[in-house]
Design brief:
By secondary structure, the chain is α+β, with helices and mostly antiparallel strands. The chain is 24% helix and 39% strand. It is built from three helices and twelve strands, in the order ααβββββββββββαβ. The strands form three sheets. Strands 2, 6, 8, 9, 10 and 12 form a six-stranded antiparallel beta sheet that branches. The termini are far apart.
């Protein structure tokens, strides 16, 4: 035992111990930074400021238009959000309402458009898509959110939707001919009173 103690180098032990502590603290610190960053990104994604909002207090139709004039082909989608509420500034609906949403897009650009009800981007199956043509031979894409959307008069409700717009990167080589072309997307909300059977 005494022989072992004699061979034991205190300076060497302190050096290795100090390096080990620094290494452990560095690993712990880096994992905290990653956790904080991922938490920030998650919170950032779920707290998107809407591009516009609808306030539905009665039987009515409302529409707003998105003008897409600065988008380029990309691997990343462009996300546009909007909300539908039955209250605003202390005012609220006095009756139960249900509403439907229709998206009408010009087909000036080769875009893929999807409509999701937040927050999980999993409700696209509730959307029907059709294409129509007017008397001037202009084509329009229509997306309708078909699920029941209820706004109960005695409960403040805000539903959030996201338009997922893809301009495929495969059009990058053709972008010179598409530059300056504007896509218009109308968002229409139609509300009707819930009638008890």
């Amino acid at each position: 035992m005494k022989e072992m103690i004699k061979r034991f180098d205190i300076k060497e032990f302190k050096k290795y111990f100090f390096v080990s502590v620094i290494l452990i603290l560095t690993i712990v610190g880096l994992s905290k930074v990653k956790y904080t960053q991922s938490k920030y990104e998650t919170e950032k994604d779920t707290n998107i400021t809407p591009n516009f909002a609808f306030f539905i207090a009665d039987v009515q139709s409302q529409s707003q238009t998105l003008t897409l004039d600065n988008i380029v082909p990309s691997n990343e989608p462009y996300l546009y959000t909007f909300t539908v509420s039955n209250f605003k500034d202390g005012k609220k609906s006095g009756v139960d309402l249900e509403y439907e949403i229709e998206i009408i897009a010009t087909t000036n650009l080769p875009l893929n458009i999807k409509l999701y009800k937040n927050p999980n981007f999993s409700s696209e199956s509730n959307v029907t898509t059709t294409v129509t043509q007017n008397e001037d031979d202009v084509y329009f894409k229509h997306l309708k959110y078909t699920s029941e959307n209820l706004l109960s008069y005695n409960t403040p409700v805000t539903d959030t939707y996201t338009l997922w717009v893809e301009f495929p990167i495969s059009y990058k080589s053709e972008f010179a001919s598409l530059n300056g072309v504007i896509e218009l997307i109308d968002v229409e909300v139609k509300a009707r009173q819930v009638v008890e059977p």
